[in-house]
Amino acid sequence: MELEEMLGRKRQEEGRVQGRQEGRVELLTKLLRLKFGALDAETERRVQGADEVELDRWAERVLTAERLADVFA
User: Fold this and answer.
1) What span, in angstroms and rounded, lies between the C-alpha atoms of 60 and 48?
2) Number of folded domains in the chain?
3) What's the rounded Cα separation, in Å, for the pair 21 and 59?
4) What is the pLDDT of residues 8-17, one digit of tens each?
5) Is residue 51 part of a domain?
6) CA–CA distance from 40 to each of 28, 29, 36, 37, 52 (Å)?
């Protein structure tokens, strides 16, 4: 396999990972807004800066949280 081809595949995989991350951020943001209303800037920043594990954990907590703070507890 040529170096150029390997680099191309690596870029594709990085793009897929980034796309999945962006999708998680969008979905969590939507779920939070639907359940709790408008989000403050700090919450938006927190979600945008979260890693995959945090996003998944918070998305699960949305289902049972009574308050926005419960999602991030």
Assistant:
1) 17
2) 1
3) 13
4) 787 877 778 7
5) yes
6) 14, 11, 11, 10, 21
Q: Rounded to whole angstroms, how far apart are CA atoms 68 and 8?
A: 41
Summarised one tens digit per residue, pLDDT across range 43-69 is: 999 999 999 999 999 999 999 999 999
pTM given for the model = 0.79
The 3 state secondary structure assigned to 17-56 is: HHHHHHHHHHHHHHHHHHHHCCCCHHHHHHHHCCCHHHHH
Residue in this structure with the two tokens 């709790």, named with its chain if needed: 36
The answer to whether residue 63 is domain-embedded is: yes
CA atoms lying within 13 Å on the CB side of residue 27: 14
